[in-house]
Design goal:
By secondary structure, this protein is mainly alpha-helical. The chain has a domain of 40 residues. Helices cover 41% and strands 0% of the residues. It is elongated, with a radius of gyration of 17 Å.
Length: 66
């Protein structure tokens, strides 16, 4: 059974592809604070930028990877 109108189906893009397209097409950057591809200084910079633009996150214990 189809739950979408004809012509609106297709495949769903994975989250990294959506982020990549957003960066290339609109200059938007979506970064997870715990992305394993980032070094500690890069994660810290992202955290500081996020706090400057949007305020502090709710108080949680930070999970440190690696």
């Amino acid at each position: 059974m189809k739950w979408h109108p004809r012509g609106y189906g297709g495949t769903r893009r994975d989250p990294d592809q959506v982020k990549r397209d957003g960066w290339k097409e609109q200059g938007l950057l979506a970064v997870a604070i715990n992305d394993h591809r980032l070094t500690w200084p890069e994660r810290e910079l992202i955290r500081q930028l996020g706090e400057k633009l949007y305020g502090k996150r709710p108080d949680r214990r930070e999970v440190r990877n690696g």
